[in-house]
Amino acid sequence: MCYLPFVLLTQVSCPTLVLLMSNSIVASRNGIDHPIWLNDLGTLLQQQGELDRALALFQQALQGFVAAEDYVGVGRILNNLALAYGQQGQLHRMQSLCQSAAGILEEAGDRSGEAMARHNCGIAAFQLGEFDTARRSIETAIAIRVAIADQAGEAASFHVLGKIYKRLEQPETALCCYFEARSIWRELGDRSGEVLNLNAIAALFEQQNLLLSAAHWYQQALAVFLELSDNQQQPEFGQCDRFSVGNRLRRRSIFYRKRRPSSIKPVVRLQSQILG
């Protein structure tokens, strides 16, 4: 059976995609690609927020991969299940499934999939407040991603590691991680990742009461954000729309520039060293 080209899938509406993929599943129920289509349709529904339907399809896909003894497929579908449960707030279940996925994918030799699963293990642990566990998982993901030259994944993991060190009250290490992620995202030309990173850097300086530095980074985040908005691209800022995010960044950058300079702290000296 022939797959629809991804570029075609991105050019049709969601209901049309669901219909096309559902028909493809019916046509291929006896084929090896049946669980692949179930997974793809589940992912599409997950992106649309229809989590119960997505979970049902992921469970069906899991049965298909198990029957075919496709352990890479099993590991990756477990990771997808974990993410969907995480979206429902079932973080312990997400963490357990990610751990299972990581072990299966490691044994199957799928290093990219293993790194993704360990990264998601770290996110689950972070959201559960298990910061040391989160750090270990993310550092393992980074090591794998460096080894396989997955720069986009490396940047994402460094960004999460920065958040972890921020919660561990190690702002200098957090800043190093953020700047590492920023460097990679800039090299890749990933402006969406960069704006999330700039916002996180600004928030770190805000937390340290370094308000002029916070204003500097909020202004940079706002500039990139507006550029993306003009190009009809929108970075993932949770449930906020682009107008509320833009206004929030603008208000913060203006407000903090009006405040008196804060006292110099070690994190500022570190920033100067990094930026030269």
Structural description of this entry:
The protein has 14 helices and no strands. It has helices spanning 6-9, 14-27, 34-47, 51-67, 71-87, 91-108, 111-127, 131-147, 151-167, 171-188, 191-207, 211-230, 242-258, 266-275. The termini are far apart.
Quick synopsis:
By secondary structure, the protein is mostly helical. The chain is globular and about 60 Å long. Helix 4 packs antiparallel against helix 5 (71-87) and helix 6 packs antiparallel against helix 7.
- Give me the number of helical elements: 14
Proportion of residues in helical segments: over 70%
The description of the largest β-sheet is: none
What string gives the helices and strands in order? HHHHHHHHHHHHHH
Q: Identify the overall geometry.
A: globular
Number of strands: 0
Give the low-confidence spans.
1-13, 25-29, 237-246, 260-266, 272-276
Terminus-to-terminus distance:
56 Å
Radius of gyration: 21 Å
What keywords describe this structure?
globular, mainly alpha, disordered C terminus
